[in-house]
Amino acid sequence: MQNHLLQILALFAMETPVSLDAEDIRNEKVKVLRPMQQLLLEDVIVGQYKGHNKGSKSYPAYIDDPTVPKDSLTPTFAAAALFINNARWDGVPFLMKAGKALHTKRAEIRVQFRHVPGNLYKRNFGTDLDKATNELVLRLQPDEAIYLKINNKVPGLGMRLDRSDLNLLYRSR
């Protein structure tokens, strides 16, 4: 995992600093990182990219690189669930993913909101409401944006849900 991913996590999860001085911001980031739960093997997935063809284009595997040993087990992808043991973030997983040669290049923070207990609409909407969570996405790159994915009732007399995006794409702003 790259260091900048931990920096972004710390900035996102920290409390408001007493000022915008670098030392005050650093202190708040340290307060987030110190109570971070030790990473357990069952909370991590690692992998290595394989070669594939897409149309007429061929993409080589990691071990096809002449500088890499053919029996290399070096991971080129990692996904981990991180937990911060403090009052605000207790029990909330922070999912981090990073890798080389992925299909898309992006850096973003996704916050998936939990459903409140006692779903009043379960009889009308069934379990579909439980499958689709509302989500706030802060995209850092490419195409910097902030968008909110929300479930909403389709207008009319029926009781159907649809997903809508409220999108602030900085490029078009």
Considering the chains and any ligands shown, give keywords for the structure:
4-stranded antiparallel β-sheet, 4 helices, 2 domains, 9 strands, 18% helix, 173 residues, 3-stranded antiparallel β-sheet, alpha+beta, single chain
Folded structure, characterized:
The protein has helices at residues 3-13, 22-33, 122-125, 128-131; strands spanning 44-47, 52-54, 57-59, 77-83, 93-99, 107-112, 135-141, 145-153, 161-169. With 173 residues, the chain is α+β, with helices and mostly antiparallel strands. Strands 6-7-8-9 form a four-stranded antiparallel beta sheet, with no helix packed on it. The chain has a three-stranded antiparallel beta sheet with strand order 1-4-5, with no helix packed on it. A two-stranded antiparallel ribbon has the order 2-3. A hairpin with a 3-residue loop joins strand 7 (135-141) and strand 8 (145-153). Helix 1 (3-13) crosses helix 2 (22-33). Residues 1-22 form the signal peptide. This is Glucose-6-phosphate dehydrogenase C-terminal domain-containing protein. Pfam families: G6PD_C (PF02781).
